Amino acid sequence: MNGSLRTGSLWHGSLWLAWRQQRVLVGVGAAALATAAAIAAYNRSGMLDALHSGLFDHCGTGPLYCTQSDTGVPLLLDIEPLKFLGTLNIVLPVIIGVFWGAPLLGRDRELGTHRMVLAQGVSRGRWFASRMALAAVTTVAVSSVLAGLFAWWWQPAADRSYGLFWYENTALSGSGPSVVAAALFGLAAGTLLGLLARRVLAAMGLTLLVTGATTLLLHWTHRTRLLVPPHTYTSAGSTPKPPMDEKWSTGHYGLITASGRHDDVMNCPFPSSTQLKECMAQHGYVARFYEANPASDYWTFQWTDTALLGGLALLLTAVTMLLLRRRV
């Protein structure tokens, strides 16, 4: 009984110490959320007023801009603040990794204060779990709210020529569950590097490099469609191609022979016309094609990124726990 009470007291003492050490960061996160929510509410209200003014009613779907009938000037919403929030969500794993993950164990290691905690009978696993649990819960809360704010703000202007298409970087990487997984990856990477580097400043620098490189690498996989291949859309003969609408084009267009071979579009660089028909007949082409990802692939990108980054976060956390016995 006494042992149980002592264990419970130590456990709560470890949590209390974790809260004491991280309460400033929790407060900063709460203040950032309140500011982001106020900015989103103000700007979304202005966006809705513009959309309800009737100015955009004649605009159709698709990537082509619609214009003012009297001046010919393209009609665009002011979405720069929305893009700024999306950019903040993209760099969130870097911010959390550098300023929260790297010092999480690294500061105690650098100052040697962990020895005092462990001398009180707290195990290494409990010392790590108490710090990581508070940091992870706060990271999930902050990233979830920021991703939700982006989605709520973006929805009225989603996939419109005067708004923001799903495949633009700030929408594809700055919204959805992948924002949460990326933030947890940043926290896990910073924590592991803080344990390994023994110096907080060095760990922060390494975390900046690792999380920044991972973010850029993920964007590269999006652009190359490495993890989510595009679909091929075809049109028979020289009839007009299926409309692009909300699809994300790869920029790869071409012509198809009767045997199914795909050739470059420059072999017959003509729009739908008599010249195109003559050129296709001369070269034996029977159809045209283009490659693109449909709007429904937004969720395929999202869940692929979430699985990849979430898996990396779990792996790095497991490695950190295994290394605690040797390095602390």
What's the mean pLDDT score?
90
Shape: elongated
Count of DSSP H/I helices: 9
Q: Give the terminus-to-terminus CA distance.
A: 30 Å
| Whole-angstrom Rg | 26 Å
Poorly predicted ranges:
1-5
Sheet-strand content, in percent, reads 5-15%
Q: How would you spell out the order of helices and strands?
A: HHHHHHHEEEHEH
Which structural class should the secondary elements be placed in? alpha+beta
How is the largest sheet built, in terms of strand order? 1-4-2-3
Helix content: 55-70%
According to DSSP, the number of beta strands is 4
Main beta sheet, described?
Answer: 4 strands, antiparallel
Describe this protein's structure:
With 328 residues, the chain is an alpha+beta fold. It has helices at 2-51, 80-111, 113-119, 124-154, 169-172, 177-197, 200-224, 274-283, 297-327, and strands at 231-236, 248-257, 262-264, 285-293. The protein contains nine helices and four strands. It has a four-stranded antiparallel β-sheet with strand order 1-4-2-3. The protein is elongated, with a radius of gyration of 26 Å. 33% of the residues are buried.
